[in-house]
Amino acid sequence: MCFNSRQRGDKTMKAAVWYAAKDIRVEEAKEPVIEAGSVKIRVEWCGICGSDMHEYLAGPITIPVDQPHPISGAIAPVIMGHEFSGQVVEVGEGVQRIKVGDRVCVEPIINCGTCDSCRKGLYNLCEKLGLHGMSGNGGGFSEMTVVKEHMVHKIPDHVSYEQGALVEPVAVALHAVRQSKLKSGDNCVVFGLGPIGLAVIQCLKASGATKVVAVDIAPERREKALSLGATHAVDPLKENVTEVVRELTGKGADVCFEVAGVEPTLASAVDCVKQNGQVMIVSLWEKNPSIAMNSLVFKEIDIKGTICYRDIFPAVIEMMADGRLQSEKLITNKIKLDDITENGFEAILKNKNEIKILVTAQAGE
User: Fold this and answer.
1) Measured between alpha carbons, how far is 126 from 108 in angstroms, rounded to an integer?
2) Quick one: pLDDT at residue 5?
3) How many other C-beta atoms lie within 10 A of the C-beta of residue 17?
4) 322-338: per-residue pLDDT in tens?
5) Whose CA, among 101, 135, 296, 364, lies 20 to 30 Å from 210?
């Protein structure tokens, strides 16, 4: 993809482009051109995701830099942003389900469709997995973007564009909860209270969990967790999480969700889960952790990782529409694209009150 191009006849737009860690530039990019089977979307809002933060701080992690992505064919620099909603402004030849004017959100997974996982319907486990807004071909931190029709999901009129931008991160959370062994009445612990961890709490309560213990060092995030349905909040720097959980449950947690991506939280999750319990790994990791293997053996703990989501966007949209998931409570700020570095990425680093910041490239929003 060629950036800063103003060749004759090319339309340009404003976009946030990743060049390297701590090097995201808001600049003019080519406006994408519609293709057969694809949909052009005027992006209304796009959220800054935890994976965006990883790329900003320590990337490249998933962004292709040494060789083009095997599906998109793109290589850095790339337009970022994969949690977004907007309005359809143009449809390509052969598009039947989506029409101009539809209010939509986007499932940003890029998959090959031919590997063993894809053939089994496990498209989030594609051998060549990528994300629109990470792996090239455009992204949501822009004025316009083009995606395949099958990636597009309509949102009801009473679901705001802001809520629509949160369908993607909430889908990560709901997928993790549904992939776990959780049963109605179970007790859970959530380690890490960023946007995904807080969304996990909402999904746990909506799925019938009884006690939900929220663990984080930031008091602002513990307070937010309690407002979203957590029954207890623990500061791991001041309290022994395992002792608190065992006192509350009598046996340890049925399921622990690790959503922080740091070694101490993984160790704590393994320690406070009950015999034959489960630890769900929902986070991305910048460094490989060590783990107490004998704890897994002697307690017969089941550890399972989850990545992204599959076949779950419709459920998330329905749960938002009927109020079971109040994702808008995660939003703490809305900013312009021009301010994405200072008031977006850096603000999240510096201020633990910031949970989900939404970004728009549109004038007048």
Assistant:
1) 13
2) 32
3) 22
4) 999 999 999 999 999 99
5) 296
d(CA 179, CA 94): 35
How many Cβ atoms are within 10 Å of 323's Cβ, its own excluded? 7
Strand locations in the chain, DSSP E? 12-20, 23-30, 38-47, 78-79, 83-91, 103-106, 109-110, 130-131, 144-148, 152-154, 188-191, 212-215, 232-234, 253-258, 273-281, 302-305, 331-336, 356-360
CA distance 15 to 360: 10
Radius of gyration over every alpha carbon of the chain, rounded to an integer in angstroms = 20
* 353 closest CA partner among 220, 191, 195, 215: 220
In three-state secondary structure terms, 177 is helix
Check: CB of residue 197 under 8 Å from CB of residue 332: no
Give pLDDT, residue 2: 34
Report whether 136 contacts 64 (CB < 8 A).
yes
The CA-atom distances, in angstroms, between 318 and each of 104, 155, 325 are: 13, 9, 9
**Per-residue pLDDT at 365:** 62
pLDDT of 364? 72
Q: Let me know: does 143 contact 42? Beta carbons within 8 Å.
A: yes
Residue for token pair 């316009």: 144
Using CA atoms, how far residue 271 sits from 187, 239, 256, 298, in Å, is 15, 14, 10, 11
310, two tokens: 């599959």
pTM of the model: 0.94
Cis peptide bond upstream of 60, omega within 30 = yes
